[in-house]
């Protein structure tokens, strides 16, 4: 399905940008990229690209990394 291809191709770069923001240490960028990556994960779940629990685990791990980097 075309929509799932687009969704999955948007997902990896969003998560990668979040990881880059964490390594940079910029709190505003971390918060922005976490929000965008979480949105992409939710979209992937709604389209059936990703299981809900898998997305929840990724979002939880990203939130932990954001909190750790923000301190």
* Apparent shape: elongated
What is the tally of helical segments?
A: 3
Main β sheet profile: none
The average pLDDT is: 91
Helix content: over 70%
Q: Element order, helices and strands?
A: HHH
Strand content: under 5%
Query: Which regions are unreliable across 5 or more consecutive residues at pLDDT < 50?
Result: none
The structure class reads: mainly alpha
Distance between the termini: 42 Å
Annotation, overall tally of beta strands: 0
* CA-atom Rg in angstroms: 12 Å
What are the salient characteristics of this protein?
single chain, 71 residues, mainly alpha, 3 helices, 89% helix, elongated
What can you see in these coordinates?
This protein is mainly alpha-helical and 71 residues long. The chain contains three helices and no strands. The radius of gyration is 12 Å and the shape is elongated. The chain starts with a helix and ends with a helix. The relative contact order is 0.18. The model has no long low-confidence stretch (mean pLDDT 91).
